[in-house]
């Protein structure tokens, strides 16, 4: 016998008293994806003949050119346990289950489970612990509009700093993120303790970030800064400074992105910048575009356009086409996709 | 606090408008299983004494005879996210969670997650993508009645062709399956792109299959054909042609199975055939039987009988006994099981 | 669209007829944990310079001292499929999903899936099969009060016998557990078949246990005995005998624990004992304490105190402090934690 979860709006009386519940949410997306010169690891059969004529057969893997056009897909399920105390404090915990196709060899992938994120919320204050996102990943307009069913083009493409972000298919970091919203202002901060070793000696690899966001009328401005401990004396700590601007003018919305990407590696060090836009053409169709680049030789330059056609019920058709390149890259890489996405 | 999912029939008003929901369904089954000469990999402790008298202890695994009678079990949970658009098109996505006992050493096994399957349905048309079943796995009466709690006897036992099928505990293939039903007819087709390598050179291992099904009165006839690219010049492509017939006469139902199993390997090449039957003895008890064989030396011959006793509420007691053998097998293998199955 | 599971008490009419349902339940807990001299495996970068001046960089893992204070957490979700037959027999199956932090290096951990447990219940009789707990793990007052958010202090600390217990993050054993309750008495018994090997030769490692429990007024007395087959001639079978007493006097409750821990290894062989207590201070605050020890040199001695502050809705603040030591341990180990726990 099949079971059904009800939409929360219809039947749930969320009284202002202590309660506990488990919520499920997520989305599916699938379609076709084109990637120029796609390659990946596939099963390889090795056949060798010895001088005495014996034929030996072994199996392993080899990286070969695979089909440029493959079936792309993602299944995402968020599992949230939520408890509200007598005094109105909300505790919650999330684990994510996600399955993605293997973008290299074009095969399917088993669903994976994430590490857990724990949250306590009261009024404008929110504290996350565990597998959390930090101030950058939570920053308003950091990602902007990302064209394509797979959101494969982004204004942030020139950034190489490795900031704290929720891992959907792995353990993630074990960190803390604070967020406080008051009026038009919001503040965020995270701290991630991490220990590593060099030649068996312990080193600290802690990282932290802070952010401030201000919304006035139809415009949101945000700034964030973060650092990672290099762990070794004499090495400078990598850092990132980001400024974003987002504006909403009826059917048109746009974002602006500037970053000082201090990776302390010449190939990726320097300024990164980008813009993105979305435009509603009629009631169901939205067009998107994004461009991102940086001044370092290894920075990825990306630009592309996309379209979203709303089918109602949380479903839409989405597609995009875009290009990735860098100053020292031998070739640019064209990518395009098209398919359906549905939120449940 | 424990949460409960409601049966869909009772409370859900599925209005004819856009909607989104997450459904859970599945079954549990457990009991005892007998397998003649069962063996499996177990933890092995190696104790060695050196010439100087030093005793070394190591651990690894060894394959040994294990208990013929073990606890058998399966837990299966289907997780389905479903969205219906304004125009009545249904998008859905499934991941399966399944735990099975280890049939070799008799121990339990952790639950595994499958790759995701994506579906779009409208009227009589259905398209599956991702970890899907193909035209054979979806073919009417391919499996027929399979005696035993574990359905371990089947009319298809003589078939060795490896067709496209949903993987419950792995990634599965990344393929597409189409199905179209109109009146008494139904058509199916699948295509699975796959890349492999020989000595590091890419080869194509694509496979496809098609099927047609016709239902007239109490009889269903179905035919399916499929091929797999051998990938190498000079090698013939393996293929399979299957014809099935199913008939329903009140308390009695039966199926007939014939296949041309073109594996291109002498040991398994040739014709395969089988029959199965089910008979309702009174209101709660059903008896089942199946027989399958093939004319190749390596083809598996199977025959057995089973019984199902309905307990109501989706629960039943099930059991079966059967024999597997082949022309070149040293010994036949007797197998029997008994236990409970309950659908939720 | 997000989905909500309803609390079972509010809306579900469990009529006395056949039914099927899927239940979700669990808890989250997170906070900070202190462990004296914590250490764990972290990523280690090895840098070596050859005589010719070439610098080689490799990565592996190394065990180093990590932060004594880390973020501790657990996310637990029980997935239960439940079917009731026409005659009132209940069949159910459970798989658990659980994510814990890595207590060694302080990082997060991916959620894991357990092996499945199957249950049939009718009146006072219950039979579990698969990944089950045995008579000790199910014994009244075996664990008693365990101070700390992580319940890290227990009266049973002197016990070293490895009894049958449900595995939350692994396959567990494939065993059977019986329980029968009649009036003030309850009886339990389990049998776990297991096969191993020594130098490739099969050995039996079966284990079993039995228990009896008697409740009179506010006191519960329980006794349990279990043995594990050593598998080798000439080796004695390890065994465990446990006696527990639990009493409830209004706001105060306490437990007493005595065990004959026959591990057949000198370092851990002998008597183990312990006590625990809980005291309700006012309506929301509960204080807990526990002490455990054994007479063998390797037995772990533990003592500690804790506090639980109820926030309503299934949420509470919990913390504890305690010490672990043993006769031959170089140092004792101080441990403390504090955080929130919420049941959903």
How helical, in percent, are the residues of chain A?
under 10%
CATH topology descriptor of chain A: Porin
**Cα distance spanning the termini of chain A:** 21 Å
What does the main sheet of chain A amount to? 16 strands, antiparallel, barrel
Question: Average pLDDT value of chain A?
Answer: 93
Coarse shape of chain A: globular
Instruction: Report the order of strands and helices of chain A.
Output: EEHEEEEEEEEEEEEEEEEEEEEE
Helical/strand content category of chain A: mainly beta
Question: Could you tell me the number of beta strands of chain A?
Answer: 23
Strand content of chain A: over 45%
Can you list the strand order of the major beta sheet of chain A?
A: 3-6-7-9-10-11-12-15-16-17-18-19-20-21-22-23
Greatest contact between two chains: A-B, 57 and 61 residues
When the domains of chain A are counted, the total is 1
Rg of chain A: 23 Å
CATH superfamily of chain A: Porin
Oligomer: homotrimer
CATH architecture assignment of chain A: Beta Barrel
Low-confidence stretches of chain A: 1-16
Number of helices of chain A: 1
């Amino acid at each position: 016998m099949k079971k059904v979860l009800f939409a929360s709006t219809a039947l749930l009386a969320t009284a202002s008293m202590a309660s506990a519940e488990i919520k499920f949410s997520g989305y599916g997306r699938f379609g076709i994806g084109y990637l120029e010169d796609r390659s990946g690891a596939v099963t390889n059969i090795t056949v060798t003949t010895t001088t005495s004529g014996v034929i030996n057969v072994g199996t392993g893997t080899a990286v070969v050119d695979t089909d440029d056009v493959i079936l792309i897909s993602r299944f995402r399920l968020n599992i949230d346990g939520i408890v509200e105390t007598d005094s109105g404090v909300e505790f919650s915990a999330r684990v994510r289950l996600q399955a993605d196709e293997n973008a290299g060899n074009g095969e399917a992938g088993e669903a994976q489970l994430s590490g857990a994120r724990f949250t306590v919320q009261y009024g404008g204050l929110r504290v996350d612990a565990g597998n959390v996102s930090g101030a950058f990943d939570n920053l308003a307009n950091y990602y902007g509009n990302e064209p394509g069913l797979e959101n494969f083009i982004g204004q942030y493409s020139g950034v190489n700093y490795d900031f704290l972000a929720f891992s959907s298919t792995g353990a993630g970091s074990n960190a803390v993120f604070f967020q406080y919203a008051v009026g038009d202002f919001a503040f965020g901060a995270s701290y991630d303790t991490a220990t590593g070793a060099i030649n068996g000696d312990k080193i600290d690899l802690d990282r932290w970030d802070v952010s401030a966001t201000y919304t006035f009328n139809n415009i949101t401005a945000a700034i964030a800064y973060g650092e990672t401990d290099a762990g070794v004396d004499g090495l400078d700590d990598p850092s990132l400074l980001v400024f974003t601007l987002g504006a909403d003018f009826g059917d048109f919305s746009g974002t602006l992105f500037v970053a000082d990407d201090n990776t302390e590696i010449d190939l990726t060090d320097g300024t990164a910048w980008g813009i993105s836009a979305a435009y509603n053409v009629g009631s169901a169709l939205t067009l998107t575009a994004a461009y991102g680049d940086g001044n370092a030789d290894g920075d990825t330059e990306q630009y592309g356009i996309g379209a979203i056609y709303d089918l109602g019920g949380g479903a839409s058709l989405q597609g995009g086409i875009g290009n990735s390149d860098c100053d020292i890259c031998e070739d640019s890489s064209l990518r395009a996709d098209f398919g359906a996405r549905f939120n449940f």
